[in-house]
Amino acid sequence: MSRKYIFLDIDGTLYSQQLAATPASAELALKKARENGHKIFLCTGRSLAESSRYLNYDVDGFILGAGTMVYAGGKRIYDNPIPTRDVTRIKKRILQAGLGYSLEGGVGVYCDPIGYDRIQWYFSGGSEDPEIRKKSALDNCAYPEKFGSEDSDNIYKICALGSKWDEKYKDLENRLEKPYVLTMSVDLDGFSCGEITDDNITKATGIDRVLEYYNAETFDAIGIGDSANDIPMLKKCGIGIAMGDGQQDARDAADYVTTGILEDGIYNAFRHFGLIDD
Question: Is a pLDDT exceeding 90 seen at residue 251?
Fold first, then answer.
């Protein structure tokens, strides 16, 4: 088949919070697809810092910060951080709503106390062991805010963090000023995350930049994701694939729904569309 440009979300698609790792079948699918001549890009809401463990993956590029930073052909081809004054304003709105936050930058991810507690919980797979929690955060370049923030690093995305998706997020949504919007990213038993981004910049923005760079067409693009922040990607690509255990909004927006992340979802999707052989 002709070369396809495959855009893969990380959290809930490539990375399993239950495993605190990527399923082996997904890694095998990526390897086989590239051997067959297809190009693969990780297309994530994570910033550069938070994606550090994936930078050695055998892929062709990265769309980071939900479209605010793009790498292709071994170089950065797009960069659009949040203005410092807007970061300060958004932090205030999150605290007013009673939630914690993480500021996702190019060097680190900087959290207030509530946000850091939730980040440690997420990256450790829900562990209550303080050493495991601390190491899991450091492995993902997440630090208490005192070690840096918008004063020392460009911030590309902000997350509002809590233990459940409740009325606090609705309150925050009402407090945000345009062009910033709140999108549910993760809603687990014990962890909730809402991404705050510029409404004019999405994962589709990054996909546009990649396709322009390679002089490729939208119909040759395949997007795979699991949550609401993936919907622009799923709609932008010629084929949009949702994970079987993903959010209902993402499944409704997709052209095809594969199996769950722990049920070889990526591998089965790649095989279904002929990207890899059995």
Answer: yes
